[in-house]
Amino acid sequence: MKKVPVVENLLKLNDEVAALNRERFRSAHVLVLDLIGATGCGKTALLEATLRELAGQLRMGVLVGDLTTTRDAERLARWCDQVVQINTGRGCHLEAHQVRQALDRIDLERLEVLVIENVGNLICPVGFDLGHDHQVGMFSVPEGEDKPAKHPHLVQSASALILNKMDLLPHLAFDREAFRRDCLRLHPDLPILEVSATTGRLAPWLAWLQDRVTRFRQRAQAAGGLQTE
Ligand SMILES: Nc1nc2c(ncn2[C@@H]2O[C@H](COP(=O)(O)OP(=O)(O)OP(=O)(O)O)[C@@H](O)[C@H]2O)c(=O)[nH]1
Ligand SMILES: [Mg+2]
User: Fold this and answer.
1) How far is the CA of 41 from the centre of ligand 1 (A)?
2) Does any ligand 1 atom lie closer than 6 A to the CB of residue 167?
3) CA pair distance 138, 160, nearest whole angstrom
4) Which residue of 70, 88, 165, 193 sits with most ligand 1 atoms within 8 Å of its CB, as the best mutation to test the pocket?
5) Distance (Å) of CA 195 to CA 130, 169, 170, 173, 226
6) What is the number of the ligand 1 atom nearest to the C-alpha of 164?
7) Distance CA 202, CA 64 (A)
8) Other CB atoms closer than 10 Å to residue 95's CB: what's the count?
9) Would you say the CB of residue 82 lies under 6 angstroms from ligand 1?
10) Residue 72, ligand 1, Cβ within 6 A
11) What is the Cα–Cα distance from 92 to 101, expressed in whole angstroms?
């Protein structure tokens, strides 16, 4: 029977475009994060709070994926002038070519960090390289403590895992220890960043982000690509 490797080819093509994106990001010295979490876990809320908190300290831009609306981009544009909405139509995740097109609408040279808010979905986005440096996974307390165990691929591929809506902990039966245990069983040493985007409890996430930016700059300087101020 004739072999038709459709999915393999799709991913191969995506990887090729992701490699081009990565080259672009490297030459502009921009650290790129792919933020992945279920719909409603608070991705946009976290980015709004982060942009507000780091205004004047870190030059950030955001690409935000959503099926049809521009609502997230409108929320983020209040805090940042480098925001592009990518509408995926029926697509449940972002692909590298969509990011590539969006880069034409953003001034990469002016940025230090680019965050890509992926389409709200815990499954499909994980397998698609966008050219990013890190995947950041995001869960929230109301989703329940069993979600890391049910979504092991995200936990395993993430460089850090955000647990949002910590302010709701007193009101819900959420087993924090079971959550942590499952995460660390799947990915030992995974940073678990407990935050509350809407109440301003951001410290673990901001510290992780700053640390990654520092390491990224050090690596770029060592490679001779970034001038010290
Ligand atoms: N209590 C509480 N609510 C939060 C927190 N963060 C976000 N929310 C609320 O959760 C809802 C969803 O937040 P969004 O930021 O739109 O979530 P999102 O992950 O960007 O959603 P999609 O883009 O649709 O996938 C909103 O009503 C937010 O106000 C939090 O830390 N605590
Ligand atoms: Mg959003």
Assistant:
1) 5
2) yes
3) 9
4) 165
5) 26, 11, 14, 17, 32
6) 31
7) 20
8) 22
9) no
10) yes
11) 18
Tokens of 216: 């990224």
pLDDT tens digits, the chain, 229 residues: what are they? 777 766 667 789 999 999 999 999 999 999 999 999 999 999 999 999 999 999 999 999 999 999 989 999 999 999 999 999 999 899 999 999 999 999 999 999 999 999 999 999 999 999 999 999 999 999 999 999 999 999 999 999 999 999 999 999 999 999 999 999 999 999 999 999 999 999 999 999 999 999 999 999 999 888 876 665 4
Residue by residue, DSSP assigns the chain as -----HHHHHHHHHHHHHHHHHHHHHHTT-EEEEEEE-TTSSHHHHHHHHHHHHTTTS-EEEEEEESS--HHHHHHHTT-S-EEEEE-TT-SS--HHHHHHHHTTS-GGG-SEEEEE--S-SSGGGG---S-SEEEEEEEGGG-TTHHHH-HHHHHH-SEEEEE-GGGGGGS---HHHHHHHHHHHSTT--EEE-BTTTTB-HHHHHHHHHHHHHHHHHHHHTT-S---
Question: How many residues can be counted in the chain?
Answer: 229
